Amino acid sequence: MPGAGKSTVTRLVAERLPRSARLDGDFVSRLVVSGRVGALGEPADEAARQVELCNRNLCTLANNFSDAGFTPVIDWVIPDRAQLDFFVSLLAARQVLFVVLAPGIEACRYRNTLRDPQEQFHFDGYEDLDADMKRELGDLGWWFDTSALTPEETADRVVREARHRALVN
To answer: Which residues of 7-29 are buried (b: 16+ CB within 10 A; e: fewer)?
Structure first.
């Protein structure tokens, strides 16, 4: 969810690995300059098409970096089983680890307020997103409660434990 710590933690995880690339879904989605429709935008069919394009591009980049000997670390929201299955299908030749940073709704809201005002994400759907993700993805990957951890502690544990806790394929 917005404010969970994805951008900070994925950067820190990538820095801790010997050869890695951090792939930012927000950056990739913003490569569309004219005609861009955000994930929650209208028209909904175009938003879905652009999310799929971003997902496909993230997986292509991940495969390319992996082929070159780098561990790809993807920073992106995977809100439902269909999108996770899409990622796994495009990364089928790879070991896919799925880590959900889950500090809780209140921690996410609070952390979002700490961001620079230009970086804040105004989002009213925390409860729905949390419920939907738990329903569709709750039994997959590693749901990591990071509410009592610093970003550095979180990254250290991800590097140390993800291979054993987060495997989805």
So the answer is: bbbbbbbbeeeeebbbbbbeebb
Report yes or no: 74 and 168 within 8 Å, Cβ to Cβ: no
Q: What is the mean pLDDT of residues 115-127?
A: 80
Query: Strand pairing partners for 21?
Result: 72
Q: What is the pTM of this model?
A: 0.92
Tens of pLDDT, residue by residue over 97-107, are 999 999 999 99
Residues above pLDDT 90, as percent of the chain = 82
Residue 79's alpha-carbon distances to 46, 82, 83, 148, 163, in angstroms, are 17, 9, 7, 23, 21
- For residues 31, 70, 77 and 38, what is the CA-based torsion angle, rounded to 10 degrees? 0
DSSP 97: B
Amino acid at 13: V
Domains detected in the chain: 6-168 (3.40.50.300)
Q: Give the DSSP H or E segment for 110.
A: helix 105-114
By CB neighbour count within 10 A (0-12 exposed, 13-18 middle, 19+ buried), where does 119 fall? Answer: exposed
Cα diameter, the chain: 42
